[in-house]
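Bug #2210: token dump truncated for HAD family phosphatase?
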Amino acid sequence: MTSVGPITFPLDGYDAVIFDCDGTLVDSMPAHFEAWCEALALHGAGGVFKEDVFIAMGGRPTLDIVIDLNSQNDLKLDPEAVAFAKRESFLKRMPAVRLIKEVAEFAESLRGKKPMGIATGGTRMVVEKTLQAVGCSDWFDEVVTADDVKEGKPSPEIFLRAAELLGVEPSRCLVLEDAPAGILAAQRAGMQVIAIPSPLESFPS
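Reproduced locally. Full output below:
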């Protein structure tokens, strides 16, 4: 497991917990960044995606990110083709993915006590493989992905959908998120939010 250091989790005041996946429950962001770099290089756009931009765009669907990269860098990348290459590149790196210790321990402590869900900007196939790889796919009552909504984070749609499936009012949901877009989405959904810091030593310096 990877550590992010001490986090204060509230003991009450909520009836369900919704977790982001990448960078919140699972230390997978370095693998995703490497996958992005490889996919973009394959399509002649190596070096356009800097680490700080990647972090700022965290939590957003892959297709949306490619569209933004096209706009920002005057490129004509095929979003579907880049997304496919990025997915395949990430799947190769799955063995490097680890649970984030503090968040995983919190989730385990709630199993059987409160409804729990995942709300992620990833695709269902990749998210399910990620949860299986780290051994926690059976912890959650519902998993909502980019495939299940019309608008990705920072739209609140994905969190509202998760709350609906869990049968809990949005105001009674606690969200754990690491990315700015995800934090904003949860706030827009009227939910309580805990910001998860980046895993210690996650990216090489």
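Output looks complete on our side. The mean pLDDT is 94. Marking as cannot-reproduce; reopen if the truncation happens again.
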